[in-house]
Design brief:
single chain; mainly beta; UDP N-Acetylglucosamine Acyltransferase, domain 1; eight-stranded mixed beta sheet; six-stranded parallel beta sheet
Amino acid sequence: MNLPMSLIAGDVALGRDVRIVGFVNLYGCSIGDESFIGPFVEIQRGVAVGRRVKIQSHSFLCSGVTIEDEAFIGHGVMFTNDVFPRSTNSDGTLKSAGDWQESATLVGRRASIGSNATILCGVTIGENAMIGAGSVVTRDVPPGAVVAGNPARILRYLTEKS
């Protein structure tokens, strides 16, 4: 795949009919069949993206994130994977890979995350849940819940027709 100014490492597992717009950085991840990756997206090592997932521009998926089938990730969504991020250890030396513990995040099937949301690590966003634009998700979101705010709070639950 030859995309302008993109880095798609050789260890990326791309499913069938994946669409990728230029200016992406993908390495060590897997992208499921028929998914869409917008411009200026970074997906790091160990991320698993399911089938028919749509990831909009300027989003960042760090290691430890799993996105299940048919989920939607809006523009500029940021995921984290470190509960206590620091650049150095207490003795002032730079932290290395062995100096921190990754915390996993799961986005359930058909969940939708609005633009500019921040998803803190270690949470599960349930199936069919909806995260409002600009929200900061600090704890698990139940299946079918609509949440918004900082911190994100449950506003209501979706019905079958929603």
